[in-house]
Structure formats: C-alpha cells, structure tokens
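TA notes. Do not distribute before section.
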Amino acid sequence: MKPIFVIIILFVLFLLVVFLIEIFRRKGSEKKSATNDSDSEKTNSSQISSESECCGQHAVCERDARLLSATQAIEYYDDEELDVFQGISSDVYSDLQIEAFEEILHTMQAKDIPGWLRSLQLRSIQLPDNLKDEVMMLMEDVK
C-alpha cells in the first residue's frame, strides 16, 4: 500500500474513534442531566406545593415563575427603576408608585405584556392590585 493511503485510513479511523467517544460522552451527560433535572423538579415541586397561593393571573403565576427562573434569564423592558419595589406586597403601593407601573405599562406594546409580567415575577416584583384588571384586559386584546 502506498503511504498516503495508510495515512488517510489512519486519519479516518482516528475521526471515527473521536466521534464514538463524543457520542458516549453526550449520552453520559444526558443521563446525569436527566437525574439532576428530576432532583431539581422534586425540590421545586415541594417548594411550590408549600406555597399554594397564586396571583390569579395565568401568565404570571408564582409557581410558573419559580420554574421559569431556573431556566430563563431576566429580560428588562426598560423598567429597571421598578427593581426598588422588590418584595412589596401588591396591595400597599402608593398612588405615585402605581403611576410608575402605569407609565411603563402604557408605553409598551400589548404583545410584550406577558413577557413583562414574567420579568416582574422573576424579579420578585408584584404588580399593583389596581392594575391587574387593566393588564388582563390588555392581554385579552392580544389574543
């Protein structure tokens, strides 16, 4: 055999071995990932079941937000100033604070409202009670 053919055959065999190693490595990491996912789901579900209170808005349910927070990065809708409202209950906002939410709500497109609500939930910011009905009506218009 000519040396060039031997080199080509060895190179092809090398690529085949690398390919097989990569396949086995991925299968192993998928099994580990599946095990870790099931463990984290059990942990999340125990946390969720202990807090059975839901905000009443399907798009921003706290239980969904907890699951999303593990998999989604927080997206801001030019509303970074709302971060100061973290942890404040939805029924104690002042009129001035509600106006801050209203200003952002009225400047965004209706199709962005569900994402904005998810962003608020992921950031532990509760939508003021006074705006919940309006938000639901705006979201209905999108459908």
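Switch to the second chain here.
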Amino acid sequence: MQTAIPQETVQSKRWKGRAPAISVVVSTHGRAKLLAGLIHDLEAQDHRDFEVIVADNGSEDDTWTMLTERCTLTPLRLCALRLPFHDGPAVPRNTCIAKARGSIIAFTDDDCLPTATWLSSMARAFTPDTSIVQGRTIPEPRGGEGPWGRTLEVQSPSGLYETANLAARREAIVEVGGFGGKRLLSGRPFGEDVLLGAAIARQGGFTFAPDAVVHHRVMPGSFRDFLEERRRLSGFPLLVRLVPELRQRTFARIFLSKRTAITDLGLVAATVAVILGGPFGHLSALAALPAVLPWWWRSSREARMRPGLPIAWRVPQIVVADLVGLGALVAGSIRARRLLL
C-alpha cells in the first residue's frame, strides 16, 4: 500500500486513548470552506466511537490553518496530516488508513455532508459476512448551483463504490493493497474507488445501506464543465476491462446506460436518414422516427431542467453533450479494447 510521509501532524486533545470502532478517512485539496462543513457534520454524529483522519493533499489555500485551529476546538478525535501534493487522493487516503486505528474504515469526501445517523447506520450494516458497505448519496437539499451544477446521486448499488459514502473492514483494504496510485484519467479523481471496492467485494460480502445517507454538495459549473464530464466517459471502457463484473451493470451489455443507448440509436437513425434522404425521401425519415424521437424527447426533458435559456437553445446543448459523450466512449473503447457505447 503506497503511503506518504506527513510533513506535519496535528491531533485534537481527544485523539489519544483506546482504538475506536470506526475511522473516518478524508483526502482534501484546496477546499477549506467545504471541509469545515464536513467536519461540522461529523461532530454531529450520533455514533460516538469513531475518529477522523484528514489528509491535506498539498493545499495552497488555508486548509491546513483551518485544520490546525479545528484540532484545538473540536470534540472529535481528529488527526490532520499535511502531505506534499499527490496527483489524486489514492496516496493520501492510504496514508490515513495506515494511521487509522478502527477496524472499519469509513470514507467520505470534502464536498459531502453526512447526516447525523450516517456512521451508526453504517456500523449496523456490517455483519460477520460483510467486508464492504455502500451508503446512499443524494444531492444536498438546498438545490442547484445554476443550470450546469454538478453533484452525485447513488440511490442503489452502482458497482462503482463511490467514496462519497463507503466503508470497509481495515484488514480487507490492507489485504488488497489499498488504493492504487496509478491514475486512470487526468483531472479529477476517477476509478480508484471502483478498483478498491471491487477487489474487496470479490473476497468478502457487500451490503448496500440505504439508511446511511450522505448529502453531496451541488457544485457550480458551466456548459464547458458539463462537456468535460462527458469527455471523461472515455475512462469507462477501461474500467470494464479492469473490473469485468461492471459489464453486468451496463445496458444490454453494450451501452454504458440507457441514456447512451437512446443517444447512440437516435444518432445512427438520424445519420442513416440523412444519407438515404435523397433516394428514399420521406420513407427514410419515417423509418428513423422510432429511434430519433426518444432521443429528442429525453433531450427536451433534460433541457427543461436546466433554466436560464430558452429550450430551443438548451436542446442543442444537450445534443452536443451527448455527441461528445459518444465520441469519448468510442475513443475509450478503442484504447481499452473493450466495446462500451
């Protein structure tokens, strides 16, 4: 398990003592204001037998100052580790795990707000046959941040083991080697939680805990950010190659989701209709309608959910994003030698 040597370590007054049942692990970078909200909600947990370990992954804002000040005031058993910057959260999380004393490691992120019963619900979900538990993640109740706000929603087992709301036995994490340090995509973290969770689930039991709820913040974004998210779909064919069981969660074992299936079939039908439009005229257009209409209807429905501009402008934006996603999946399928559209 690849770890780092902390440059500084700060502990709260309550850190010392017997080992707790649960260790909460967080990797953060440059999000001091968001992190303060997370720590506040961890202080409100109704489960009392836990500790919190936060790795500051080379932040350039006042994250470390906030953490050191919080350690002097918080009732939590809190340990903060200041690390040199690592490209991604894998090594910081591994470093926290190495410091952890709990037999269960719970993960959440700096853009999350756990409900007060989060840890107690997580703890109840573990049985002697359970090695890893995923909780339910829903957007924060206060609403969106503009038409292109970004958040996370996990209402049922996804197979992706999102670390916004995940817990596993410490011995199981160590046995599979922790989080891998190799990045699958540049930019925001991608896939390291999938590889870890799948490896643990293969060796031990998995449970989904719908009562263990974490709210995920809705982050502001632009249309360019939305397109970038669609480009990142290029990583999913590689995930399917590395985690073959993900294929069972795809749509018809070929498409990433029902959404991409509707997009792909609609695009193919529209293209064929245009190509055959000359010799076959209206006949080709009518033949394409069963595939094109669902694509257009879904695009129109999503456009109405993104206020700020008329639907006549929003629909083309959604269509463009769908095409970017399709191109990313095709490129990713070629690189990974696994077809996923």
